[in-house]
Design brief:
Largest sheet: 7 strands, antiparallel
Structural class: alpha+beta
Helix content: 40-55%
Shape: elongated
CATH class of the largest domain: Alpha Beta
Radius of gyration: 25 Å
CATH architecture of the largest domain: 2-Layer Sandwich
Length: about 325
């Protein structure tokens, strides 16, 4: 008998987003992945002090019965390094079978109610946890939970619990869009250099404007090199973080979240003053606006991929320009 199953995913150890992406792939081997929710970050519930979790829900269609499905979920957890040593402790991957229903009985389905050993279905605590309910409502709002109420009805009762939506589209790396953004960036920088060269000229004599321009250009180059060095192995031209990227909050990243862009902006400002090119000034303004948009896209990906980036973004106020730090 073909059934729909809702499975909650969680991870707070290792490369969390990569682990969850692999989990979605594994779930596709035991059933048809019908839908994947957005990606959420939540503080741990119970247990020892530990890092925040990434959470999502996946619905699959499967021929497996509940016990067989649960066994396969435990197998996937083991393959991803899950060790069941401490209740509510940190884990590389947590897969919980939340609800299951036959597909022949409408949206809610004829739900399975199972109690065999340690297994209870629907999950006995899912209706109390917003980090399960929020993504579950995206995919299966009518799902009936252990208290006999739907996921939607239960969600209102967990409004006091904090969850943060990080991304809607997170399972696949969006390399096409990433390369498009890189292409636009280099086209704009090329247009700026052409405008500065064609519509401007290097100074024949020097006054304070040229001196400021030279200083800004040199400072911009220095900031860009400093920021690139501090990124180390995390440095990439694409607005997609590398696998395993850790939070960087040293050097210029202590004061501005995207110091490489800040360095490029300083460099463009310096060249505008050196060449006194109004067309170059216009292109520089457009390029700065593009940097703002591209940095925002990068941050949406960093929030999902890098543990602690949300708190870092709250501490460091400036996206493109140093604006000071919030205390705490």
């Amino acid at each position: 008998m073909r059934s729909r199953a809702a499975i909650a995913l969680g991870s707070n150890l290792g490369d969390r987003i990569h682990i969850l992406r692999r989990a979605v792939f594994h779930l596709g081997r035991i059933g048809r992945v019908a839908a994947v929710s957005g990606l959420y970050e939540t503080a741990p519930v119970g247990g020892p002090a530990q890092d925040d979790y990434l959470n999502a829900v996946v619905t699959i269609e499967t021929e497996l019965d509940p016990e067989e499905l649960l066994a396969r979920l435990h197998q996937i957890e083991a393959e991803e390094g899950r060790q069941r040593e401490e209740r509510w402790g940190p884990r590389s991957l947590d897969l919980d079978l939340i609800a299951m229903a036959t597909l022949e009985h409408g949206a809610a389905g004829a739900r399975f109610v199972e109690r065999h050993g340690e297994m209870t279905l629907p999950h006995p605590r899912a209706h109390e946890r917003r980090f399960v309910l929020e993504p579950l409502v995206e995919l299966w709002p009518e799902a009936l939970l252990a208290n006999g109420r739907s996921a939607t009805d239960n969600l209102a009762d967990t409004a006091d619990q904090e969850v943060s939506l990080l991304a809607r589209d997170w399972v696949e790396l969006r390399r096409g869009k990433a390369w498009m953004l890189v292409g636009i960036q280099f086209a704009l920088l090329g247009a700026f250099l052409v405008a500065a060269a064609v519509a401007g000229s290097l100074p024949q004599s020097w006054d304070w404007i040229e001196a400021v321009g030279l200083g800004l250009a040199a400072a911009g180059g220095g900031v860009g090199l400093w920021a690139s060095w501090r990124l180390g192995s995390a440095l990439t031209a694409l607005p997609e973080p590398r696998r395993g990227t850790n939070l960087v909050e040293v050097g210029p990243y202590r004061w501005v979240r995207h110091p490489i862009y800040f360095g490029l902006i300083l460099g463009m400002a310096g060249l505008v003053l050196l060449t006194r090119s109004l067309p170059a000034l216009g292109v520089a303004a457009v390029t700065t606006g593009f940097f703002w948009i591209k940095a925002g896209y990068e941050e949406s990906r960093l929030l999902a991929a890098v543990s602690g980036y949300g708190a870092y973004r709250r501490r460091v106020r400036g996206r493109l320009f140093p604006l000071g730090r919030h205390s705490g």
